[in-house]
Specification:
Elements: H1 3-21, H2 48-72, H3 77-81
Helix pairs in contact: 1-2
């Protein structure tokens, strides 16, 4: 498995996991504390740093799992292509 393939798998896994993690823990802003021009559906606390670190960790676990499955011969992707 080449390093470029590993980078591509990590990037794809990272984006998929990010969109799965984004809605966790979101609560809307209290209507009484809305600022002028603020969307009433905006999150009170986005906690993006936490979500990005969780996304990176999960994507790394998925990459390691993919690497071991692809290199162990447990599932042969080349045989599936034939």
């Amino acid at each position: 498995m080449s390093i470029s393939e590993m980078i591509v798998v990590y990037i794809i896994a990272w984006w998929l996991v990010l969109f799965m993690v984004l809605p966790f823990g979101i609560s809307r802003v209290d209507p009484e504390t809305l600022l002028p021009g603020q969307d009433p559906g905006s999150p009170a606390r986005g906690r993006m740093v936490l979500k990005l670190s969780i996304t990176s960790a999960i994507a790394l676990v998925l990459l390691v799992a993919y690497y071991f499955i692809a290199t162990s011969g447990l599932i042969s992707f080349r045989d599936m292509a034939k």
